[in-house]
Amino acid sequence: QVQLVESGGGLVQAGGSLRLSCAASGRTFSNYAMGWFRQAPGKEREFVAAINRSGDTYYSDSVKGRFTISRDNPKNTVYLQMNSLKPEDTAVYYCAARGGITIQLGQYAYDYWGQGTQVTVSS
Fold first, then answer.
1. Which of 23, 87, 88, 104 could connect to 109 by a Cys-Cys bridge, CB 3.0–4.6 Å?
2. What was the pLDDT predicted at 78?
3. What are the angstrom distances between the C-alpha of 78 and each of 44, 105, 122?
């Protein structure tokens, strides 16, 4: 089992920045590929970014160039640095882990999920 706890969400003005953190406990963190997803009210949960065990990253087109995913294995933590935030980035952001090598974009490929953290971007 892997437990994931997100933090760092909040209210920010458009153009601002936030950094989300996801602390993992349980199994060996470095063995897991990690992802960030988000869900806005009335919408499906969507992929945001992912990082594999080797540090390779992948981003959705909507956040590419603005968001950066990173991981600190000794701290068992994955981060999502969000810059140039837009009102359409408003959502609950979820951290997820999967016990595989490859980066996956589909939420059903992930085995463990955090409880989510709210990000609200005002215009």
1. 104
2. 97
3. 23, 17, 25
